[in-house]
Design a protein that fits this description.
240 residues, mainly beta, four-stranded antiparallel beta sheet
Amino acid sequence: IGADGLPVISYFDITNGDLKVARCDDAGCASSTRTAIDTAGTVGTNTSIITGADGLPIVSYYDNTNADLKVAHCSNATCTSATVSTLDSTGSVGSYSSIAIGTDGLALISYYDETTSDLDIAHCNDVACTTATVTMVDQVGSVGSHTSIAIGSDGKGVVAYYNLSSGDLRVVHCTNATCSATAITVVDSTGDVGVSTSIAIGSDALPVISYQDVTNADLRVLHCDTAACGAEWYSGAGDR
C-alpha cells in the first residue's frame, strides 16, 4: 500500500521479460497505471515490493540475464519512472528476494545465493537503496531459498526460509539493524517442510509463518512464541 493509500503491485512480464509495476487508480484496483521499470534483458522474477521511508515504492527482484540482485526505487507514487541499481552481482544471486523497511528507515532484503547455496541479507546504505552491505547469514548446507522477511516488534529483521539439505523450515532473527549479527532457529523439521514461506507480524507482536508441508502436501501455519521465534506452535498435518 502506497503512502497515498492505493495498492502498488510489482510483477514479471513473461512475454517481454520485463519488471513491471501496476499502481491502482482506486482502492478496489478496478483500473491501474502499468509501467515497465526495468527492460534490460530478462528481469523481474521473484519480486517483492514495499513503501520506503520516503513514501515511494521500492522493489527487489532477480535479474535473470545476469543472475544479479537488483532494486528499483520509484521516482513518484505511480512509479512511472524508477532508479534501478544492482546490489549484488557476485555469482548467481538474488532469487527468492523479500524486502522490508527497518526501523532505521533503510531496506533489508533477504535472498538466495545460488552459487554458494547460502542465505544472504542486504542492508541498504541509503533510502533509494543504490548500494547495500551484504551479509551471508546462514551457510550450513543448501539454505536460503523461499525467503520471506518482516520487521519484528523488537525492530529487528526476522526471516523465514527453507533448508534444502535437511528439508527444514528455519528462522533467522537479526540482533542488529544491519543483520550483520543473527541467531538461527530450526522451527519445523517434521518431514520435508518450509517451501513457499510467507511471514508477517501478528497483532500480538509475534511472527506468524505460512508454508508448505511437502511430505503431506499440506499448508501449515506456525505461530512464534517469541519475537526471535525460538519457540512456536504448529497448525497443520501432524500438529504438535
